# Entry
Amino acid sequence: METGMERWLLVGATVVVVLSGALGMQAVRSGHRSRWTMVLMTLAFLMQLGVLGIRGDLRGQCPLGDFGEILIFLAWSLVLFYLVVGSAYRISLLGLFTAPVVAVFQVVALAPGLLEATPERVAVVDPWREAHAAFSVLSYGAFALAAVAGLMFLVLNRQLKDHNLGTGLFRNMPPVPALLESVVRLTWLGVIILAVGLACGFLMKESASGPKLLAGVITWALYFVIMVVHAWRGMTPRRFSMGIMGVFVSSLLVFAFV
Amino acid sequence: MEILCLGLNHHTAPVELRERFAVPEGRLGEEAGRLLELPGVNEAVVLSTCNRTEYYAAVDDRHEGREQLREFLQSHAGRRLRAEHLYERERAEAARHLCRVVSGLDSMVLGETEVFGQVKRSYQAALERGATARTLNRLFQKAFGIGKKVRTMTGIQEGQTSVGSVAVDLAEKIFGHLRDSRVMVIGAGEMSRTTAQSLLSRGAHSIFVTNRSIERAEELAHELDGEAVRFDDWQRVLQEVDVVISSTGAPHAVVDREHVEAVRRMRRYRPLFFIDIAVPRDVDPAVGEIEEVYLYDIDTLQGLAAQAKDRREDQVRVCDRIIDEELAKSGLFHPEGNDESAGRDAGPELKGGEAAS
# Structure
């Protein structure tokens, strides 16, 4: 495979995602749903898959060897969950909110130095380490989309509270229960996947301790507590959504510096 | 070949008259075939819905064709038919009218979609009967294409223009399908009744009615197939419901913040939608400050209804523009045809005497 091919594919995927967001925005302004969101996001998903495939080939392992790859994997898992949830819940507008997050992840991944030009091919693969990294990042895709759905709820809630119902955005918003249910399901999905990822982390050949794993455990615990409180005694939808978004953003910040 | 449309609809004729012209769906093709027996009529489609009966024809000469169609319609009426009951459209105006009908712009409920299928079935019946050829085939195919485009590109179907409908639309936006929603009506007034009926018609499955006079509550509950609740017991029901419609004649607030705060935990902080259509207001505005509560009073709902009406009027203009542009692009009509006077009520020719039945 020609060196740098994956960068062009990533640029292509980013352009497609930005286009999807722009068309979605234009459609919403005129009070309609974009017919292209799902198609373009699927195209972006395939291009991301191509990038990850090339990087995996170069490394001889799951492509999570540098920060750039982690961001691409995260963007890919976000789009993956969007394609599953967006079509299952008929929440095409979720794509409009997801596109900017995916674009930001990919643009950052394209920054010089974040994606190693010639990644070192590993000699020995530890399957537990591979599984730990893959499941952990995949869970963040679910958490990211849960945060996006939570943000959508907050926007809808504000519009309903302010009686600001004349916008195309409001008319295309899914109902409150659909949004909240997608937040709940995506977060539970993330909690389960991250639990598997953490379990794999403890089975790695090298030391299972370390700040990243600790941050992962704390993140998992915070999500778990929110979900148990929500299921057991109930929470206002606004607090629940803010909690889910808050844990996601703060854990991303922690991982960026740990 | 000239295109003509003659008909009557809910704008021009009362239901007693419209029903005389109604053609059962199974006889639409046969009726179109009968039109072909008229001299100079080469193609025909008959459209019949609960709001309109319209005859579309491709004729050799439009003056003669119009006379033939009028006589045909008059023979249908079985009584004297007044001029203002009928309308006539010719050439481009007939095409434009058909496109407006297909798009739901001429319907009683603006933007309704059912008429699209009804026109399709009418055309299909005429096609199968062999009553259409090149002219009407092209016209109807084009009209269907334009109808689809209008619905795709505009929000003509969206937005309600009455207070009750706006409230019900909002309830659907908040709760999605209303089939799992429970409703409490405080006060057994007319507005409460119509709003509750609208909610029921959209799927709400459980209605509680409370009123100071339990007899009135029981009466309305019976009508709505719901359950009457004593007025001193409505707070208990508050923990179960999703929507509260309040319209009492009380001079002060009936629902205070404390009432809602008391049941939040038991409701597990589920969203609660208050529709306060009473003047003076029944629900203390402080209730709307509670996180999971959405409070809409009569002024807000009326404002939203007015906004929706304005939006719809804008959308109608957009739809008309699309229709005009698409018809101009279609090349169905040649520029030499002066269509300025092509659309008219049947008046000029029928005035001075009522058409004999």
